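question for whoever is on the cluster today: can someone run the full assembly for these? two chains, 722 residues total. i dont have access anymore since they changed the login thing
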Amino acid sequence: MNELQTILSDSVNGLLGDRVTKQLLEKAESGEFPQALWDEVEANGLTRVLVAEDKGGAGGTWADANAVLKAAGEHAAPLPIAEAVLASWLLDKAGIAVPDGVLTVMEGEFRLDGDRLSGRATRVPWGRNAKHAVTLIDGEVGAQAVLVALDGAAIEEDINVAREPRDTLTFDGAAASAKPAGLDGDALALYGALIRAAQMAGALAYLLRQSVQYANERKQFGREIGKFQAIQQQLAVLSTQAAAAGTAAAHACASADRQDDPSFEIAVAKVRADDAANLATSIAHQVHGAIGFTYEHGLHYATRRLWSWRAEFGAGAHWAEQLGRQTITRGADALWPFVTAR
Amino acid sequence: MQEFRFDLCELPGETEGLRQDIRAFLKKELAEIPAVTRAQTWSGFDADFSRKMGEKGWIGMTWPQKYGGHERSFFDRYVMLEEVLAAGAPVGGHWIGDRQSGPLLLKFGTEEQRQTILPKVAKGECFMCIGMSEPDSGSDLAATRTRAEKVDGGYKVNGTKLWTSNAHKAHYMIALFRTDNDDKHGGLTQFLVDLTLPGITIRPITDLSGHAHFNEVNFTDVFVPDEMLVGTEGSGWAQVTAELAFERSGPERYLSSFILMVELIRELEKQKGEKGAAEIGRLVAHLTTLRQMSLSVAGMLNEGENPALEASVVKDLGAVFEQNMPVIAHEMTGIEAHIGTGSDFEQVLGYLTQVTPSFSLRGGTREILRGIIARGLGLR
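^ ran it for u. tokens below:
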């Protein structure tokens, strides 16, 4: 890790580790947005890691942002931190000033008339709590980043399996700022998959740490269950899955910094995170036994997020199909040269 | 709990020229070799091919020049490895010497051992094998019983080594013998054994696929001179452990079924549909991730670190990936595997279906590796 990554990692893990308690998570799931924690996250600059320094950001890379995204997932922070990191990056690329306050991203069907936005976005993370949302609208000059205030939007509330807000927003001629972002129209889904893959790697790291700790504490048959080979072998598998998802996410972030088109590595990361989540959530629950199945125990804050995130911004199956089609089109003999050239 | 480290490692740009050289060489050399033969990759034996690799300077690439090496970077060697594996080159002859025995002798061997053996290995003219397993010592390596009893001027060896790959074609064995019956781990010693010595009999064992690449090697009153002891008496266990980190870290731990992946894609190309795209995409995602993890371990080895735990993680994930390949190919196509006749795909499927069980046995069983990982996690 470089210096900025160490600072970011210490800062975000310190803050979220202290403040994302079970109580805070329970309140968030019953509908109470942790505004005070958001204010601290924002004040620490964690959501503006990808914004240029002269615009008040950290001037970081995606590799730097990975530290924040991973921590957001690892601590199950009930805030749109990852979404705000992405939204701020899109705005910065388009030269639109990043507004203060809760910020999210949205995907939907939109029409832009001058600076007036109309249309509908579904499954918007924390739509009800955000002050602003950012989307990309494809146009003749490439995609435009669009910033819109949400006070004029009609909001239908909904949630995902992790009980994170996923709301439907409807706009009818809302005032918006729009500028070319230098990205393709599908970049929001792509980079959305990147932030989820990084968060999933964090949640998987939590599952491993928590499961190992539990196995070293819980006693049955007169000894810690972690002393049994049957449990050890399962936790070893969990650890390999967490490591693979973490490596794939880091590789995708590095590619986002280096390649003009990082879609290959991002698709790889989302597929790998999805596969890892399927196996790892199952093992973590099996090791925890009945207690891990209760609402009282905190394990589910991570597992339910993984079950939601694996499908958001394209499930593994969606990205795998894209990777597969491209691979078959390039041809069998092109596979190895392609993989080694990335 | 120890955190695994998989820091990203990018290959230096200057390795690209080497990669293209190797590709051009392999394209020419392997043009006439059928896919089913290439599918043997590092189990495939071809003495002429090994000699050509030696002539190219692609064996012992990182070793000092005074021992016939080429003093190239660890990354150059990594590129060579992944290229020969992905192409399915018959590298089995020199594989053990290049990967394992050479580095072992460089680290623990005597000057005389290095000077006698290493230049020949680097030329692709001298092949090595590894004598570790025995009839009663598989995963429990420290149960080694083959006895090396001290006699005047050397050791008298009695016992049997088992599952010794390529012993029938190798010139030397790096063997683990018991020199002290009373000390389980501290009573083991490594020797460099000339396989032409009197008293050694080598019996190839045919595996379930009909190939005979591993052997039973019997020692009856074999005299091994003192000069052939490797390292120090009683340090065999520690030396072997260090050696296994090399054995478990390479790209051969996820590329053993790569030829089948290529033939599977070719099969789907022919069908022209989009059937199976998601399954192929999933394989590509796993392959790409494994490569990054393997490169990360290579980067740590290059920095002189000891990524033994991470190497075990890569080997375990890699073996699962390699082993699933024939199952996935079967489920996707429903095409029957063939032996001896049929298309490239059918024959490669036939070969790999049969040999994949060994992928989670060789170099440490799946259960032993996961035990090592569990210890790293603080569970043992």
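summary bc i know u wont read the tokens: Residues 187-217 of chain A form the longest helix (31 residues). Chain A touches chain B through 51 residues (CB under 8 Å).
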